[in-house]
Each structure stands twice: as C-alpha cells, then as structure tokens.
Amino acid sequence: MTAKERAAWAAEIEKHLLGHILPFWAGPAMESNRGGWHAWLSHDLKPEPTRPRGLVLNTRILWTFAAAHDRRPEALFHDRAEVALRWVRDRFWDPVHGGGFWHLDEGGRVRNDTKQIYGQAFYVYAMTQYHLAFYAPEVLDRAQTLYRLIDRYAHDSRHGGYFEAFERDWSKPAISLVGGHELGAAKSMNTNLHVLEAWTTLYQAWQHPAVAARLRELLLLFLEKILNPQTGHLEHYFAADWRVLSDNYTYGHDIEASWLLCEAAEALNEEALVKRARSAAVLMAEAVAREGLGADGGVAYEGRAGRVTDTGRDWWVQAEALVGFLNAWQITGQKTYAIAARRVWDFIRTRVADPEYGDWHWRVDTEGRPDRSRPKVSEWKGPYHSSRACLEAIRRLVGTAGAS
Q1: Residue 395 Cα distances to 61, 110, 292, 330, 392, angstroms
Q2: How far apart are CA 370 and CA 376, in angstroms?
Q3: Backbone dihedral region of 35: left (phi > 0), alpha (psi from -120 to 50 degrees) or beta?
Q4: CA-closest candidate to residue 388, choices 341, 321, 340
Q5: What is the DSSP letter of 93?
Q6: What burial letters (b/e) apply to 36-50, b meaning 16+ CB within 10 Å?
Q7: What is the pLDDT of residues 224-263, one digit of tens each?
Q8: 0.90 cut: is pTM over it?
Q9: Residue 401 has pLDDT above 70, yes or no
Q10: Nearest-5° angle of CA 134, CA 136, CA 140?
Q11: What CA–CA distance (Å, rounded) separates 107 from 275?
C-alpha cells in the first residue's frame, strides 16, 4: 500500500468509528433514567432490567471513551468517560476488601461479590487509560492499589502467572466465571492474556520495576508455556503448573494475543523479547490465516486439530483479526497480510456492521446473516473490541513506514 492508500483506509475506519460505533454507545446503549448503560439490550434494542450490570462491560466502556478522547478530544467522549468512571470507581469498587465486584443489579446493589481476576484486570486497564487520557493521579492510584491486591493474592509465586478467581475477601479461591472450572483448571490463557494487557498499559503510566518484572514473566509464559509452537495456537486451560488441560483453540484469542504480545515486549523495550514476540505473532497470524480465514473474509470462531469446529463469525474475532493481520504485515512487510486485513475490514463493513440499529452484530454466519437471538449489549457485548480495533488500525496505517 502506498502512503496515500493507507491514509484513505485509515480515514474510512475513523469515519466508521466516529459515525457508526461510538454514537451507538454514547446514545442508544445508555439508560435515560439512571445515568449509566443498559446491562442488556436485545438485537432490536429492547432492555431487560433484571439482567446484571457487569464489571467487564462497564470497565470496557470506560476504556473506550477514554481511548477515543485520546485519539480525538471531544466533549461528548469526555462526558461519557466521566459517567463510566462514576460507575466503575464508585459503584463497582469494594470499599471493604478492595477490587471490583463482578455483578451489580439494576439499582447498583452488589449481586455477585467474587473477585474474578479477568474483571480485575479490566478495572486496572480502564482506570489507567483514563489517567493517560485525562491525567488523573487519583484514578491511577486506584489502578495501582488494585495491581498490588491482584499481585498479592492471585499471583502464583511458584509457577508464575495468575489464578482465576477469589471470594470477596480474597481469602480463598472461587469458581471462575470465565470458563475452565469444569476441567479443574487453575489458570486460563484468557485471564492471563488480559492481565498482560492491563500490566502493559499500567507500565506505560507507571514504570515501576515490579510491574516490569510481572509483565516480563507473563510474556515469557505466553511464549514458552501457553503458545504451542507446533500448531501456532494458544492452549486454553491449565493446571497450576501449566500442564495443558484442553485441546481446542479460538482464532480470535490467537490473533488478539499475536499483537498484544508485541505491545508488551515493546513496552518493556527489550530487543530480544521484541524479536521473540514478533516471531510468535507471525506464527499465530499465519495459523489463523491458513485455518480460520474464510473465502468471505470472515474469521471463524473455534478450531481443533487444524480444523474449524465453529464457523460463526463473532464480532470481536473480526476486530482482533483486523489488528493482528495489520501487525503481521508491519513485521514482515508481506503483502498477503495487508490483503487479509483488508478482506476482514470489508467483511466487517458489509456484514458485521448493523445498518439498522448501529454498532455491530454479535455474530453472523458464513452467508453473512446476523444471529438476531444474540444481544447488542450484554456483560460480554460492549464497545471495546470494535473501538480498539479501529483505533489500532488507524494508528498502524497512519504511522506505518516502509511496509508495502
């Protein structure tokens, strides 16, 4: 791609972010009476007030509007970030034991008080991004406090990485609500991936040696324990000593990790780690392109033993594929990855984006038909993947030099 072509594509993506994604989350996704976001909206935007307010959704909303304001400072984005901050900082925070509650009810009362490390990671991630966008030392202090809690109670000092979930007072393990407990898993790729993501962002704001050490540890665990070098896929669930307990993989997590590992290594600014992370990123991107990328430009959800087992095209998988293929293109300069990224973007634009209600469908099939049984908003369906993909793609297209 020429510089002109890259700039034109970046402008197209920015127009979609500002005109299609963020207006939905700044408008229809919000409640009119409580000053927050709906916990759940059907595909045609009908609410179910009895659904729980999720920590993950609200921290991801906070991250989104802070990151959007960082890219394009606007009063609307600042206002929405403030609304989200009030929920995350004031309602989801446990004032007794620290950490974020997993669920609140429609009135903001605690519904599930367990400390799911996946959710705690997003709390740190969102609060740190708010500080980076608006310079708020007291918000960064909350992120630092939670980092210390997670590291004190959830870090495995023997085998490295982080355990999954704890009771409210952090005194004993709780059932993980992000999967793996049915296998007896003590750790998951998914939780540790998002802890790595959170520590990467925290380190950008607070270059403490302890954060660097934990970030380096997680990066090495992904490179040496979680990534299967024979298949190019990430293993999912593990015993405490990182013995593998599962045999499937998700293409979205593979391609998401491919660029997050590079981001972590670049934050640490260690040449040898950057080289290893980039090599792993290309390995994963190639595996996803070879197995999961369909003729329609969509990426399948799940696979096993080199074959697709779930052909659904979930919104977040397409978002991560856009960034992951662009990242592989930047690393290698190989045109095939740029073409793959463009195919994914065209699939998003023509199939995943919802022309009727705004934002993106949760899932479409191989014929491009949306699954209307799935919600537009839920504790797992938020603006983070789609917005982040757009912001990352814009940054990479505008800032890329030398790739062609």
Answers
A1: 20, 39, 25, 12, 5
A2: 11
A3: left
A4: 321
A5: B
A6: bbbbbbbbebeeeee
A7: 999 999 999 999 999 999 999 999 999 999 999 999 999 9
A8: yes
A9: no
A10: 120
A11: 49
